[in-house]
Amino acid sequence: MADRVYNVLFLCTGNSARSIIAECVLNRLGKGRFNAYSAGSFPKGEVHPYALSLLRRQDYATADLRSKSWDEFARQGAPQLDFVFTVCDKAANEVCPVWPGQPMTAHWGIPDPAEAVGTEGQKNLAFMDTLRMLTNRIGIFVSLPLASIDRLSLRKRLDEIGATKDAVNTKASSRDSRE
To answer: Active site residue: 54, 88, 126, 131, which one?
Structure first.
């Protein structure tokens, strides 16, 4: 892959928390090497308030964040995607639109923080944990030598990122609602 700016789409069913957080993290850590986007198969229509609060506390830009359909990225004139990462199990198991250019895909499942129950502190902790896991994975991703790595090796590395130590079997441990 040539040394250039890469377009990355993070998918989750509701596009209200995990995928939104991933978009913000990659846009910050990618330092102009990446354009990150997020979308959902059944967007909630709003960004989860806990996600917004956390991102604002961490000084992420939130003014342009919105919950949107993945259809926006399958239309003519949409950015040509280089990578598409699912961050929830439901989106990973859905039939995705055909992405022009055949981007590389991987599943980086993260438990849904919107399902957290308990005190306000426990709910906030679930969102902070999501931010931590995504920051870890995206940090590994942005350090990959994309300009010099072959596709097969890159595919293997992308899958390994989704299985990092902080990963959990989200199919077994989460009731993964529509984010």
So the answer is: 88
Residue 98 belongs to some domain of the structure: yes
CB 50 within 8 Å of CB 78: no
> Which pLDDT score is estimated for 98?
67
pLDDT, tens digit, 9 for 90 and up, residues 75-101: 889 999 999 999 987 655 666 676 777
Catalytic residue among 9, 11, 12, 20: 12
- Structural domain count, the chain: 1
24 has catalytic annotation: no
pTM for this model (two decimals) = 0.88
Q: Is the pLDDT of residue 169 over 90?
A: no
Q: Is 88 a catalytic residue?
A: yes
| 87 to 23, 148, 153: CA distances (angstroms) | 11, 26, 21
